[in-house]
Amino acid sequence: MKFLKIWLTTIMLFSLWGSAQAADAVLGPGDVLKISVYNNPDLLIETRVNDQGGITFPLIGPVTIGGMSVTSAEQKIGGLLEKGGFLKKAQVNILITQIQNQQVSVLGQVNRPGRYPVEGKRSLLDLLAMAGGISVEGGDTVSLIRKRGDKTSKEVIDVITMVRTGTLDTDIELSANDVIYVERAPRFYIYGEVQRPGPFRLERGMTVLQALSTGGGLTPRGTERGLVIKRRDVNGKQVIIDVKQDDLVQVDDVVYVKESLF
């Protein structure tokens, strides 16, 4: 019996939380609404908010509700019904059956790129989860692009560090029309006398020895003596650097393994 009471209380709290979230939602073009008036079943309609933020409601005609909260829109429609003399007391209820205007774009290296609704409060990690998570080609950081008025901002967030350290200060709450872009993971290249030459994902703190291991190790003709990296300097000019096994590999480095002379 005690468990049943706890379960019912939990369900009630979630129900109230969901109602509060719906009441806070801002209506906009493309949203599909189911509107009812208590004790007046003939006024039940399902409609879509047009590009101008308006709908057409029985008896009162066109009503602009774009940019309004659900609660405010309910009060506006109810007030028009009462003001027009159609009802003495109009108790209007709006249910959003499909949200179109409150969406965030998740692009780049995620498993399911697309536009996702931000119903209530949604954070960066919430949206990444909705998009199926970062793909195997994705990097450790994501770019959050936001437009507020005439200003556009871009913030780069290190998701891996945030999760590993449990520091969720940068798990930012998102708003409609924000854009999340997951970059491709940084790469390095290895060629010469290795088993699997080609491009590979560059892990954090990767050494030359680890790069050799990623390339499958040396061929029977390969040697670890005379390892070099071809790297672009600040001016974009390619330079050749002699390296040791414990030197760090950088983004877009080309590791070259020479053939043994013996």
Any descriptors?
wza like fold; 22% helix; alpha+beta; Outer membrane lipoprotein wza fold like; disordered N terminus; 262 residues; 15 strands
What do you see in this structure?
- There is one protein chain.
- The protein is α+β, with helices and mostly antiparallel strands.
- The chain folds into 3 domains: 20-98, 2-Layer Sandwich (wza like fold); 103-184, Outer membrane lipoprotein wza fold like (Roll), CATH 3.10.560.10; 187-257, Outer membrane lipoprotein wza domain like (Outer membrane lipoprotein wza fold like, Roll).
- Helices cover 22% and strands 32% of the residues.
- It has 5 helices and 15 strands.
- The protein has a 5-stranded mixed β-sheet with strand order 7-6-10-8-9. A 5-stranded mixed β-sheet has the order 12-11-15-13-14, covered by helices on one side.
- Strand 11 and strand 12 form a beta hairpin.
- The longest helix has 23 residues, at 2-24.
- The protein is rod-shaped and about 100 Å long.
